[in-house]
Amino acid sequence: MGRYDHLREIRRLDPERDFLRIYRISATLEFPWDFARALELALYRTYAVPSIGRLLAETAELTDRSQKRYDDTALLLDAVVEHGFASGSGRTAIRRINQMHGRYDISNDDLRYVLCTFVVMPKRWLGVYGWRRLSPHELRATAVYYRTLGAHLGITELPRTFEEFESLLDAYEVAHFGWDEGGRKVSDATLDLMASWYPAPLAPLARAGARALLDDSLLRAFRYPAPSPAGRAAVRGALRLRARAVRLLPPRRTPHYARQNPEIKGYRNGFDIAELGTFGPGGCPVPHDGAGHNRPG
Question: Is residue 278 part of a domain?
Fold first, then answer.
């Protein structure tokens, strides 16, 4: 099997009809490690929108139970990738996400922005740190995949093309990125979580390495000092060297899903998709001013 055989298969498929197959090849065969990092960064970006970062801080899920929240989010999203929209497992994962969103007052605009980060960040990550870039077929399939997921989540006014997702993301960040104490608290907790995945002596380096990957708009929003040019160059250079090495490896033959990632710590003995996430009484448990729309349960 040749290094670019998966890409050749992708090019034979129809991005509108075969979007799930294409996205699954990209995420689980071509770039499983890179997609995991890109989607981590995608979710992290959302904390810089004050309405999102503040809500996440008030729920305390990402500050008091960081590892569980990380695990559950990754597993629920990946269940749809692995099993598809029509399967029982995929429907259960979507139902759980809707049930959790339904407990809070979240605007359609914020939900749509979060979806945009999932679409755009893998392309941007792989454009800099990937062993190859995403092809036009993959970008089209990604847009269809997340447009389909967004519709299942009750999000309206969804972009249709990758370019529309990207334009919406950029405009939303220009308009909404800013300081919020809650967003900074969630950001700090997330960096601490990532550092905890490494031996204690390496934790400070891991935290500094993660901050070195943040762009200036995120650093300003969270009021972090700029990383040293040398530190930033070292981290980014190491990732580019990794990409060159990965390009020389034979292609992956077996899909790698999020449930297999070493960062998933809380379910060593397996899990039930229906039991992932948070549960609570009906209604929004966080005080709000009535803005936005309640999500369907």
Answer: no
